[in-house]
């Protein structure tokens, strides 16, 4: 007997357009890394990291990257290393809604003018600054690549003689 099909269209609409808020047993968490097999290492507001599972209904709906924010709840009695389940993957509009309602944890971000400055954004800004510093350095400091042949291009004297006549 086959399992009931997942209603992907409804799940996608719920994930994109709903305004989820964490319940009493749920919390906003940041994704630290993907562990494989739909398992993710999440960081909570107390800076602790634990393993959470992505439910089947959300597996092919949204992409979860390290640095993304999710709403996750703990199992009543975890029997393995997996301690809970991800219920929502938060998008920028949903994060802004949580900030407006005051349910966004202060640990994850500082709020300025309604926009969120996350640690990931700050790291991205630092990388951009480092790239510009590297571009400003001249390439004259680099040694010659010994893995390439050095070709001396010289014009032949026969071409000069044909142009003179």
TrEMBL record:
<dbReference type="GO" id="GO:0003743">
    <property type="term" value="F:translation initiation factor activity"/>
</dbReference>
<dbReference type="InterPro" id="IPR001253">
    <property type="entry name" value="TIF_eIF-1A"/>
</dbReference>
<dbReference type="InterPro" id="IPR012340">
    <property type="entry name" value="NA-bd_OB-fold"/>
</dbReference>
<protein>
    <recommendedName>
        <fullName>S1-like domain-containing protein</fullName>
    </recommendedName>
</protein>
<dbReference type="GO" id="GO:0005634">
    <property type="term" value="C:nucleus"/>
</dbReference>
<dbReference type="GO" id="GO:0003723">
    <property type="term" value="F:RNA binding"/>
</dbReference>
<feature type="compositionally biased region" description="Basic and acidic residues">
    <location>
        <begin position="11"/>
        <end position="22"/>
    </location>
</feature>
<keyword id="KW-0694">RNA-binding</keyword>
<feature type="compositionally biased region" description="Basic residues">
    <location>
        <begin position="1"/>
        <end position="10"/>
    </location>
</feature>
<dbReference type="InterPro" id="IPR039294">
    <property type="entry name" value="EIF1AD"/>
</dbReference>
<feature type="region of interest" description="Disordered">
    <location>
        <begin position="1"/>
        <end position="24"/>
    </location>
</feature>
<feature type="region of interest" description="Disordered">
    <location>
        <begin position="136"/>
        <end position="165"/>
    </location>
</feature>
């Amino acid at each position: 007997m086959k399992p009931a099909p997942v209603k992907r269209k409804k799940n996608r609409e719920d994930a994109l357009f709903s305004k989820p808020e964490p319940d009493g047993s749920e919390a906003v968490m940041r994704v630290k890394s993907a562990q494989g097999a739909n398992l993710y290492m999440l960081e909570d507001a107390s800076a602790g990291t634990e393993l959470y599972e992505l439910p089947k209904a959300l597996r092919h709906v949204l992409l979860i990257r390290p640095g993304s924010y999710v709403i996750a709840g703990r199992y009543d009695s975890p029997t393995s290393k997996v301690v809970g389940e991800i219920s929502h993957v938060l998008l920028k509009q949903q994060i802004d809604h949580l900030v407006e309602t005051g349910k966004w944890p202060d640990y994850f971000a500082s709020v300025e003018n309604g926009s969120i400055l996350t640690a990931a954004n700050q790291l991205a800004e630092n990388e951009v600054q480092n790239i510009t510093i590297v571009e400003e350095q001249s390439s004259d400091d680099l040694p010659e690549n010994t893995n390439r042949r050095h070709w001396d291009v010289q014009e032949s004297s026969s071409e000069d003689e044909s142009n003179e006549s």
